[in-house]
């Protein structure tokens, strides 16, 4: 047997990424959740059944590109969409203060010059929401602009990393043995295309959300005895204002 050529593997991975980029928008249009169930009809009847069941409560879905950034992109898209649709001034003020607070922290941690573009991308969206110049259609266009979308994802990653670093006693449990929290953040959170797992979700939700504005994740996996599982962040007492669908390795936005 010939030895595996690692360069060939990397080339194949790059080709897969290029194919995903060519076929999937960063954020898709809202569609019927039942469409996703059809993708599992031949290969995974358990997933098909669970998605059909979930569609009774959440009939619509908005897909994120499967590029490893889907959780962060979906989180911020859903958050901004909530602020647009709710027209809730108190919620908008709350998040404006939150982001202003973290801007100071991020600029201190990474440098003002480095963080300026990322923080400005968030502030620009919030200002547009406040001035009512950003609607659902324009938000979709905005998140499909490569530079803006990636700036928001990068911001989310830096914020998540900062929150975990400042709360090491809470998150050290999730860090693999032999790795420091700082190393974990630099390798698993800050780089683009690194998938988010429970500690990243908990961190970002704890940093930005509260009991009045929570996140619910409807989780579908391969466990035989479960239908779908609802996880609420930052804690179980939070009132979810937006929902994400989790399938192994991927997140999309759900709508009732």
Automatic annotation (TrEMBL):
Keyword terms: Hydrolase, Protease, Thiol protease, Ubl conjugation pathway
Pfam families: Peptidase_C65 (PF10275)
OTU domain: residues covered: 59-256
Gene3D superfamilies reported for this sequence: Peptidase C65 Otubain, subdomain 1 (3.30.200.60), Peptidase C65 Otubain, subdomain 2 (1.20.1300.20)
Broad class of enzyme this protein falls into: hydrolase
Cited CDD domains: Otubain_C65
InterPro entries: OTU_dom (IPR003323), Papain-like_cys_pep_sf (IPR038765), Peptidase_C65_otubain (IPR019400), Peptidase_C65_otubain_sub1 (IPR042468), Peptidase_C65_otubain_sub2 (IPR042467)
GO biological process: protein K48-linked deubiquitination; proteolysis
EC code(s) of this entry: 3.4.19.12
Matches recorded under PANTHER family: UBIQUITIN THIOESTERASE OTUBAIN-LIKE (PTHR12931:SF15), UBIQUITIN THIOLESTERASE PROTEIN OTUB (PTHR12931)
Protein name per Swiss-Prot or TrEMBL: ubiquitinyl hydrolase 1
Lineage: Eukaryota, Metamonada, Anaeramoebidae, Anaeramoeba
């Amino acid at each position: 047997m010939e030895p595996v050529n690692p360069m060939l593997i990397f080339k194949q991975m790059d080709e897969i990424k290029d194919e995903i980029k060519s076929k999937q928008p960063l954020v898709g249009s809202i569609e019927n959740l039942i469409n996703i169930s059809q993708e599992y009809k031949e290969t995974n009847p358990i997933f098909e059944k669970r998605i059909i069941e979930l569609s009774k409560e959440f009939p619509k879905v908005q897909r994120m590109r499967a590029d490893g950034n889907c959780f962060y992109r979906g989180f911020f898209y859903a958050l901004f969409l909530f602020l647009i649709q709710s027209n809730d001034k108190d919620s908008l003020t709350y998040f404006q203060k939150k982001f202003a607070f973290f801007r100071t922290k991020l600029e201190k941690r990474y440098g003002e010059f480095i963080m300026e573009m990322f923080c400005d991308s968030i502030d620009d969206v919030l200002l547009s929401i406040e001035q009512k110049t950003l609607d659902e259609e324009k938000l979709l266009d905005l998140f499909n602009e490569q530079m803006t979308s990636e700036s928001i994802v990068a911001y989310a990653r830096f914020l998540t990393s900062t929150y975990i670093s400042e709360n090491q006693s809470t998150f050290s449990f999730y860090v693999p043995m032999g790795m420091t929290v700082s190393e974990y953040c630099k390798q698993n959170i800050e780089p683009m295309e690194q998938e988010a797992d429970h500690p990243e979700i908990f961190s970002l939700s704890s940093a930005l959300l509260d009991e009045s504005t929570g996140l619910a994740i409807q989780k579908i996996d391969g466990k035989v005895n479960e239908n779908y599982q609802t996880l609420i962040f930052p804690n179980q007492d939070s009132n979810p204002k937006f929902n994400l669908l989790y399938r192994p390795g991927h997140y999309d936005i759900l709508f009732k």
